[in-house]
Specification:
Number of helices: 10
Shape: globular
CATH superfamily of one domain: Vaccinia Virus protein VP39
CATH topology of one domain: Rossmann fold
Distance between the termini: 37 Å
CATH architecture of one domain: 3-Layer(aba) Sandwich
CATH class of one domain: Alpha Beta
Strand order of the largest sheet: 3-2-1-4-5-9-8
Strand content: 15-25%
Order of helices and strands: HHHHHEHEEHEHEHEEHEEE
Amino acid sequence: MNAHLKGLFDVLSSFVTRPTLSRKILRALPVESRSRRYSRQWRRHEVSPVRSPEAQSATNPLEQYFESRTQGPGIWKWRHYFDVYDRHLKQFRGTEVHVMEIGIFSGGSLQMWRDYFGPKCFLYGVDIESACKAYENEWTRVFIGDQRDRHFWRDVKQQVPKVDILIDDGGHHFEQQIATLEEMLPHLSPGGVYVTEDIHRAHNWFTAYLAGLAGELNAFQRIPGETPKELRCTATPFQSEVHSMHTYPFIAVIEKRQAVMPEFVAPTHGTEWQPFLGVVQTHDR
């Protein structure tokens, strides 16, 4: 079945299997449209100086490596990605870290990751092109397969029991990105970081998929019987393991928790309270 038709079929099926949720999604559509109008009407409020490539790379070791690459295996990245990488990945530098990159292309980024993380970095490259097997060496293992194929991922997981960082720079089709995320995000180590690159265009189906995940990250399951001075909420299985989601132009990052969080707690501190509150209240909006 065509991927778009399958997506439509799944939406229609949800009206039968989960009618309450479907009604909530439909009610949210006008709000989503409102946010799109707001972003498209945005106007710059002040003129900021434009940083040169030299200034941008001065403090970022990944960008320094990229800018210094004048020959050898090629690297092709959007320049603004390097700030995102360094923000979310710098804590792994100098440690034993297992990094998987999907989309090897000319092999230059594998060398970049090794330089950035250091000699205790183990790399796993994934590509659909069998020629990329040539980039295998003593610190890099290469798997050849289609990232849309879930059987392929199950075989990879058996051979690679530990993945701390996954960077999806593969085929960029939303079905490939979704299949990879669904198979590999649960496999990611506690405290691990999952990166999906090249999410282009405003009406992108993978963006819509991420929006659904973000919505579930805000799920609220109140624990009954809490005291007026403390509010407790059961964490869903997804919330208990996923720490945060971050979106940037063309790139998204998901971070997993170091340890499972079974619940969220909001205690009160202090003795003076406005009388109109009375007790701790929550509002389901």
